[in-house]
Write a structure and sequence with these properties.
The protein has 358 residues and is an all-alpha fold. Helix content is 68%, strand content 2%. It is built from 14 helices and two strands, in the order αααααααββααααααα. A two-stranded antiparallel ribbon has the order 1-2. A hairpin with a 2-residue loop joins strand 1 (195-198) and strand 2. The radius of gyration is 26 Å and the shape is globular. It starts with 30 loop residues before the first helix and ends with a helix.
Length: 358
């Protein structure tokens, strides 16, 4: 009688649990590294450091009215730094933004005064001109393929010459005429250059606009399809176009957004001082770009935020006014500007390498 043998199933003992293997792609970064990876954290810490420095070295800064002046100075920079930052995230520059502010103010002032119109007619005409300048810059960049640095450098020179030449031709002077007695001036001043009191301190309306615009820009970047388009065209426009991103529309609209910012700041300047000096604005474009760079926007595009330039603009306003309150020579401002810009670039480089280190 044969015997049937049944093979017993092999029993395998599971290996003892050990540490989970991870590589650089799956390893969880610490909270500190994740925070360092945000483009606005470094500039926030820098803004706090500058604020504390001037609190110690310039006692007048501690006064509420002095801080209101600092915030006002920051807002006039910050309102323009926001669209400039979005444009940089989209991979482009606009060197004409500083003189475009003056072009806008000159257009509104001279058109209304010389034609004896309500100042709101000049305001609307200035908006159209500013948007047209932005459209032209964007269209030329997209259609020619030339670097925006070269295109907008040409626009900068054209506007600088036109501002001076046309103002002298029309008014016989380098400044526009006073429009404070014209129809509509009071209403326009209330919109663009009014102030209100909080705790006995006069607060300029531009501070409110600055923060509202920053909130809108942040929402657009982080919560909308258009924000994704901005990052995409700044990262790689060819790849963005391949996946259906409207590159032409995005870039032109970003330049037009800079034009809108130039119009708004130009209207504030006009209705704050009633007249405009045609030679102003030169050099402001570097401050706007520097505020964006200090705020974490990369020169190569594709990275940045709207909150970072807010702190960058605050640092500029803090230094510009803090030097005055400290009783120092105002000429030191440009030196501080260079130090802050160089420091921000080095810090951004260090943060980027630290945050991505495997």
């Amino acid at each position: 009688m044969g015997m049937t043998q049944h093979a017993e199933p092999a029993v395998t003992t599971p290996p003892a649990p050990g540490p989970k293997e991870t590589d650089g792609r799956t390893a969880q970064r610490s909270l500190a590294l994740r925070l360092l990876g945000r483009p606005d954290v470094g500039v926030f810490l820098g803004a706090v450091a500058v604020w504390v420095f001037f609190l110690i070295t310039a006692p007048p800064v501690r006064d509420g009215s002095s801080m209101a002046n600092i915030l006002y100075q920051s807002s006039t920079i910050g309102i323009m730094a926001l669209p400039v930052a979005l444009l940089m995230i989209g991979g482009e520059f606009d060197l004409s933004s500083g003189v475009a502010v003056i072009t806008s103010a000159l257009t509104a002032s001279m058109l209304a005064y010389q034609l004896t119109l309500n100042v709101w007619a000049g305001v609307i005409a200035a908006l159209i001109v500013s948007l047209a300048i932005g459209f032209l810059n964007g269209w030329l960049v997209v259609k020619t393929g030339l670097p925006s640095f070269l295109i907008t450098l040409g626009t900068f020179l054209i506007l600088q010459g036109v501002n001076l030449a046309v103002t002298k031709l029309v008014t016989g002077n380098v400044a526009t005429d006073d429009i404070s007695n014209m129809d509509g001036f009071a209403g326009a001043k209330k919109v663009f250059a009014s102030s209100f009191e909080v705790g006995g301190v006069q607060i300029k309306i531009t501070i409110v606009y600055w923060l509202v615009f920053a909130a809108i820009a942040t929402w657009v970047l982080l919560r909308t399809k258009y924000g994704n388009w901005i990052f995409a065209v700044g990262g790689n426009k060819d790849s963005a176009r391949a996946v259906g991103v409207p590159v032409t529309f995005t870039k032109i609209s970003l330049f037009m957004l800079v034009g809108f910012g130039a119009w708004f700041v130009g209207m504030h300047n006009l209705f704050s001082f009633n007249t405009v000096q045609s030679g102003e604005g030169v050099g402001q474009e570097l401050i706007y770009i520097s505020a964006a760079v200090i705020g974490g926007c990369l020169l190569t595009g594709g990275a940045g935020s709207a909150i970072g330039p807010v702190f960058g603009a605050f640092m500029f306003g803090m230094v510009q006014q803090g030097i005055v309150y400290a009783g120092w020579n105002p000429d030191w401002f440009k030196a501080f500007l260079g130090v802050m810009l160089l420091g921000a670039v080095l810090i951004n480089l260090w943060v980027s390498r630290t945050a991505t280190r495997r």
